[in-house]
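Milestone 3.1: sequence recovery, worked example.
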């Protein structure tokens, strides 16, 4: 599963407003930088980043460059459930041009292994 394409299309659709819209090349750069930042965040118990694990459900980029991230965890009782949103916020705030970040935690739909990328499957030997 290639999460990058799904997130990029969603980000483009979210910023399709003609008034004050982010230019397409800037939106692409910002989306790529946000995804790269998300790939630096790991669940300490799993040797794959949260993006490749499929824990990021949605990235919304407003015209003001405020980022909203909808994410989940591999399980509701994850030991880092209280800390993970802060790690994600910190990572995305480090992207040049981002004006702010809000992380929404959701368990609907529940995460399952089908959301993992091939890269995560290789890292976890889950074929």
């Amino acid at each position: 599963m290639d999460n990058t394409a799904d997130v990029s299309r969603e980000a483009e659709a979210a910023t399709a407003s003609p008034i004050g819209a982010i230019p397409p090349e800037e939106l692409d750069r910002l989306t790529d930088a946000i995804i790269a930042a998300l790939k630096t965040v790991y669940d300490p118990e799993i040797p794959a980043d949260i993006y490749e694990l499929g824990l990021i459900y949605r990235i919304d980029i407003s015209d003001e460059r405020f980022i909203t991230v909808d994410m989940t965890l591999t399980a509701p009782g994850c030991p880092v459930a209280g800390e993970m949103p802060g790690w994600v916020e910190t990572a995305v705030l480090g992207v040049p041009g981002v004006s702010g970040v809000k992380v929404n935690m959701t368990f609907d739909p529940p995460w399952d292994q089908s959301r993992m990328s091939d890269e995560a499957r290789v890292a976890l030997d889950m074929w």
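The first helix runs from residue 3 to 14. The chain has four helices and three strands.
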